[in-house]
Amino acid sequence: MTSTESLIDRRQLSYIAAQAADARLNVELETEGMTLNIGPQHPATHGTLRIIARLDGEQVVWAEPSCGYMHRGYEKLTEVRTYPQVTALVNRIDWLGSFANEVPFILAAEKLMEIEAPPRAQWIRTILFELSRIANVSLFLGDLGVQMGAITPVFMAFRDREYVLNLIEGATGGRFHPNFDRIGGLKDDLPAGFIDETRVVMKKLRNFCDEMENLLFGNEIFQSRTRGIGVIPKDVAMQYGLSGANLRASGVDWDLRRDQTLPMAWNKVDWKVWTHPDGDSFARCWVRLQEVRESTRIVDQLLDNIPSGPVMAKVPRIIKVPEGEAWVSTENPLGEMGYYVVSKGDLGPFRTKIRSASFNNISIVPWVLKGVYVPDIITILASLYFILGDIDR
Amino acid sequence: MNAALLAADLPYWAQALLRVLGGVVAVLLPAGTIVYVFLFKMMSFMQSRLGPMEAGPYGSMQLFAEVGKWLQKEDITPERADRFIFKIAPLVVLVSTFLLVAVVPFGPDAWFTNFEAGVFYMLAVSSVSVLGILIAGWASANKYSLLGGLRAAGQLIAYELPMVLAVIGVIIQAGTMNLQDIVFAQNAGSMFGWDGLGNPYILTQFVGFIIFMIAVQAELTQTPFDMPIAESELVSGYMTEYSGFRFLTFFIAEFATAGVFSLIASVLFLGGWGIPFAWFGWDTMDSVDNWMNVVGPLIMFTKMMLLSFIIMWVRFSYPRFREDQLQRFAWKVLVPVSLVNIMITAILKVAF
């Protein structure tokens, strides 16, 4: 049987099961289905995601995510902003790794204007991009513990994430929302002492990763809660448009940092794309842990050979982007994030389509939640790792 | 042994009052200490933070601040709740704690009741709290609470059995179900003819001790067995709809039960209130000096803190099981191991 057939088969089976629960055909136990609303206000949904789950006992028969409770209309708002103003909006999409949200938009605008940032700006962009990835994913690692009942890891995550946030704040002036990227370069150069401080922090972060591996990933209860749970096969993951660590955990070797040429510094250093063949919750968490390690290595190497020079290309004082359309996507902490910018030659974009990773990543929720138990809903959602701002935009 | 030595000249009502006061102290003092020392301070230090620091020196008055806060909160009853059942449920849980402490001996004469089937009684009343949790979950008219209550019922019944079976090893070895006699048997006993340490059953019944502590962890619904309250999935489960004083009652009951179970575990496995009797040349219960009635409770308290430290340590560092994994663990691991333990204990008892 091919995988597509098995997919259809599984859908049909779950549909029949849902019907059975509806019609109380479960004669064996005479149980009645129960609809459980997980969210919009629920500690496991990172915000206001609502999951409607039809349960048979504690087993999920049918589940559907309902999003839009936090819709802020950023796509529309960009149409009434000028290009430099847009970065202040879009870094609120994925609020944990906000600098990474600015980069693809700026790159798209630069692509339309046919300018390229000077090498030093590219290097610093990449460093800040990876720092925001670390800040984002290290919180995921701590949060993972909370979702499974271990309350200690999250405090360690917050403790060590603070160092990274301090670095970002030192460089950009904003802890959460840097708003630092400009068309043609960056607002400023790195502050004095940034490089030495970053090296120290990267060492701390690697220790944090080891700590997490010992505390959480090596724990037998953690493994029994995640191994073999929420398995997403390779082809299903690709059909549902998963990206980022969720896709790599299913065994697809796909990383936009490596696979496309952008005016960024990733291809200048030596690093590895981690994949995992299992596709279960554990694989997704493990791949993210390795990515934090890999990011610290990238930052260290970038600091070693950071070029000198200006951080801003020559751009006109009033930025008017020539008519055209551009699509740029990057490998953000949550997955592929891209902007399709349509310009009519005005001060601001005519239309922007934001492709955010979490929205596509949670589209698999109805498929992957079928037949699991209620506690596994939480671990699977935690391992899929979405951020509500990134879903609803 | 004189049954009422401490209260010899008091009338009946005064003795009863004394016992009630003693019971309240024996339940609330461990609960308060555990909450402050472990829940507030130890947890904070484990998580690289300071914990409460403002109320009193090192936040030592934080408990009173918390109680005051909870007492001020509105006592909300959900509209569709079964009002009477909803309101008595926390009390049922707390009553089980008080019933438990009634059989714990604190000294040669410092006890509330002392009857032959003490262990049997203790195991029986510890399941009363299941009833309270189940009716709390059901009466809340909340789906999360219902799931939590049902999980609690399944879990507590499953872990009752390993607990009983773990205690049977002790009963076989001591030859009695009277908790006071179990304490005596441990402290007056000897290991291979050497009585310098008595014979605490943690050494001979180590497997039983481990099983008992695991079962206690599950009975208390502490991590890794906390799916009935699972904050991140069921939003505190059966406690979701409770607020104010009733929530406080659940909270007190949880930690008081942790304290009382630690007391019971110290009686069964660590020698209870006693110190090895050979040190002072005591050979019968009556020959134990009277000052043990004062020192005994302090020794008990120390052992209680040690055991509840272990309970809390595990609680703060482990993730939680899923309930089917938990049931599998109870029935496929704990029950067979404790049965083997009983068998070996019985054979050795007959052999020696």
Chain-averaged pLDDT of chain B: 84
Q: State the CATH superfamily name of chain A.
A: Cytochrome-c3 Hydrogenase, chain B
- Tell me the series of helices and strands of chain A, N- to C-terminal: HEEEHHHHHEEHHHHHHEEEHHHH
What is the makeup of the main sheet of chain B? Answer: none
Give the uncertain stretches of chain A in residue-range form. Answer: none
**Tally of alpha and pi helices of chain A:** 16
SSE ordering of chain B: HHHHHHHHHHHHH
- Order of neighbouring strands in the sheet with most strands of chain A: 1-2-3
Helix proportion of chain B = 55-70%
Roughly how many Å apart are the termini of chain B?
29 Å
β content of chain A, as a range? 5-15%
- Coarse structural class of chain B: mainly alpha
- Counted up, domains of chain A total 1
The oligomerization state is heterodimer
Mean pLDDT of chain A: 84
Strand elements of chain B, count: 0
Intertermini distance of chain A: 39 Å
Radius of gyration of chain B: 21 Å
Morphology call of chain A:
globular
